[in-house]
Amino acid sequence: MRILITDGRVVDPASGRDERADVAIDAGRIVAIGRAAPDFEPARRIDASGCIVMPGLVDLAARLREPGREHEGMLESELKAAAAGGITSLVCLPDTEPPLDEPGLVEMLKFRARKMSSCRLFPLGALTRGLEGEVLTEMAKLSEAGCVGFSQADRPVRDTMVMLRAMQYAATFGHTVWLRPQDGWLGKGVAASGAVATRLGLSSVPVAAETVALHTIIELVRATGARVHLCRLSSSAGVALVRAAKAEGLPVTADVSVHSLHLTDDDIGYFNADMRLTPPLRQGADRDALRAALADGTIDALVSDHNPVDDDAKNLPFAEAEPGASAVELLLSLALKWGQEMGLGLPRTLARVTSDPVRVLGAGLGPLSASAGRLVEGGVADICVADPAATWQVTREALTSQGKHTPFDFAASGTALPGRVRATVLAGGMSFEAR
Amino acid sequence: MTTLSLDAEALYTELLSGVRSLVRPDTVLVGIWSGGAWLAERLHADLGLQGAAGVISSTLHRDDFSARGLAGGGDATRLPFSIDDAKILLIDDVLFTGRTIRAVVNELFDFGRPRSVDLAVLVDRGGRELPIQASFAAAKVTLPPEQRLTLARSPEGRFVFSFKAKP
Amino acid sequence: MLSRHNPQLNANGELIHLLSIDGLPRDVMTHILDTAGTFLSVNDREVKKVPLLRGKSVFNLFFENSTRTRTTFEIAAKRLSADVINLDIARSSTAKGESLLDTIANLSAMHADMFVVRHSESGAPYLIARHCAPHVHVVNAGDGRHAHPTQGLLDMYAIRHYKRDFAQLSVAIVGDIVHSRVARSDIHALTTLGVPDIRAVGPRTLVPGDLGEMGVRVCHDMGEGIRGADVIIMLRLQNERMSGAMLPSAGEFSKTFGLTPAKLALAKADAIVMHPGPINRGVEIDSSVADGSHSVILPQVTFGIAVRMAVMSIIAGNEA
């Protein structure tokens, strides 16, 4: 199908392009940016005046809840939600039920996602069998099946020897190990250590839970040379360790969730279970450090950390509530909000959800890495058209995700979010159009 | 609208003579907090009675709790004598719907079983909503229901009435 | 984010639920204490009942067992002439049947007017207050580590009774503060009432540094913590602390932070000793101190009934 997107502000962070231009698409590829050939007859015209035309977003962290927890989300609903959020490539975590430690499961997941044509799906494979932290998975076979990296999700690997071996093995094939830096014992609480947790009487997670784990991981990176992606940094002390590791030239990258970027433990208020998240929300100084680190590149990518949770699991006392929030549909808005508040321009802001995540994925994306997360003539037509000036209220009705819980719920926050996705193009087809 | 002038001190003199004729050797005076209590205190002294007059509050037995919450005066009740078999003369400033008297009698029965309970008031303003009567009232007046009539006592101990429109 | 309205108060600033002392205005607290005084005198009468809650149903929802607290609430409600229903909901693991909110919904359908709730999780009463019908009032009888507001109020009543003026006092709270809802409620009450010197005393594992942000002085030495105190509040030491690697033994705790006559001598000569109960004799407090002339532990129980009558009558009289 031929599509012509006209009059938009084309922003491509990777190349630095930021100009008013048309984008012509044919057979799944971008054929022209700027002026289309005079004989280009599009089947669809999209009027993007007043809108940004940007690469489709690349989200490095989402849980789709299938297989295993279908009462919270289905592949179809969550991928549609991602498309509604302007996302064209999504990385999902391996802690499904059963976990993604068998090539057959990975192939099935990829096959089903392809058929839905909502969003490209890049699963992370389990680092150890059953995520138990004892026996390595068949990483070569899993990567052949489509895994872009290997992860323990939120399950700790207590045996440091196993962790060392897993990183060595992954490094053999050039795979990236994706790890959440959280010590298994120190990380058991439900809220971040601090005045709020003390006052509310909630079991707490000290910063040491993150820093102790980071120290261990960084030491093992030094020892093995393995490439590690650090998931969901939450503290200023954690940021400092990552900054030092990068300065040393170690092969580490990092991401931060939209929640840690915007919220603090004060937002828990009167035990609002929508604020029950992992990692837990920390204090203002931590949030500020995370925001600055995302701006200066110490943190490479902003992720949604999409974890849909159903009502029954949230309508519980805080400590019993399931941590998580629906966020794929909020990723762009929350990126824009951060960028506006920090005074960064659009290209720098959008890089953190397009070209930078692609850089983190590296070789894992295969041939797609040449053009995913960017707008390049001849490259894949994964595009998001969004109105940066529009605002929207996050309500249950507005969300496509099966999970309706988010800290940014308008009823609680009273704040509308900036930026509205008007259309999402995936491989040259319309994966989403706003009504 | 006619303005009514009530001289509380003059009415007190009437009340004193009316109560004098009701009082028997073993009658005990119990004043209803707060206006009735002031009256009972002065009556008790002017009649030369033994001991002290009692004070009773209707607060804990009122029937408007759900609407108005707990009013003041909850701990004002002071009954320094046995209620069992007593001849009680209740004293109040203004008798209106009768609900305060009902609440006070209930409170009284929490303390014991009196032989008899009688009532003398400074002003009976009619408007009864319960079958309650005073054996003696120094004045009988009719007032519009939205008008509040309360007794006040000056620092020197003089009684004076105040009229207020209900909010 | 958005400023949050304290769910305990209605739009007129009147108390409709009692969930925590944190956020309770000083005048509301004083009103409760004054009203408790009224009910204390009622409790001295032969007929101890007043009809204020007649026709109302008070449901005691104890998700965590406590015979003593439940009994005092039951006595208080009955003295207000309420109908009392006791529900001891056994707390099993997640493989239980009904969810918390389903339980509440079912009980509301039975025309409950007030829930007195004890739960092992901090914040549970807030969840209940958010979801119950507008005319239903919630009293927190203890939630996890977070709050035990009626205990805090009765402790303040006791202090006011024996010491009169809060503005000059030194109060020491000793023991397992980090896990104690009583300690948190006491601290909030003391700071609201303007007590200038509040000490939190105990080992570092039980008295964390960031407690200072609640307005207390953290002391890890018992002598320093007790010296010159007007009021000493001893907290119960729970057995779980030993298994959580926070303390080696009850014996060691008793040696370092237990209240003995010798340690008590460091406080003011007319100091009072308080304890929310039940006491562990010989662990956090010596028998001779618990039974001695400084102890007001038993009067606390009496005050507790009057305070709970005050709380229930006040909230029942206010509309949401």
Please characterize this protein's 3D structure.
- The complex is a heterotrimer of chains A (about 425), B (about 170) and C (about 325).
- Chain A is of the alpha/beta class and about 425 residues long.
- Chain A is about 30% helix and about 25% strand.
- Chain A contains 14 helices and 19 strands.
- In chain A, strand 1 (about 1-10) and strand 2 form a beta hairpin.
- In chain A, about 60% of the residues are buried.
- The model of chain A has no long low-confidence stretch (mean pLDDT about 95).
- With about 170 residues, chain B is of the alpha/beta class.
- Chain B contains 4 helices and 7 strands; from the N terminus they run H-E-H-E-H-E-H-E-E-E-E.
- The longest helix of chain B is centred in the first third of the chain and has 15 residues, at about 10-20.
- The two termini of chain B are about 20 Å apart.
- Chain C has about 325 residues and is α/β, with parallel strands linked by helices.
- Chain C has 2 domains: about 1-145 and about 300-315, Rossmann fold; about 150-300, Aspartate/ornithine carbamoyltransferase (Rossmann fold, 3-Layer(aba) Sandwich).
- In chain C, strand 5, helix 6 and strand 6 (about 195-200) form a beta-alpha-beta unit.
- The mean pLDDT of chain C is about 90.
- The chains are: A alpha/beta (about 425), B alpha/beta (about 170), C alpha/beta (about 325).
- At the B-C interface, helix 3 of B face helix 1 and helix 12 of C.
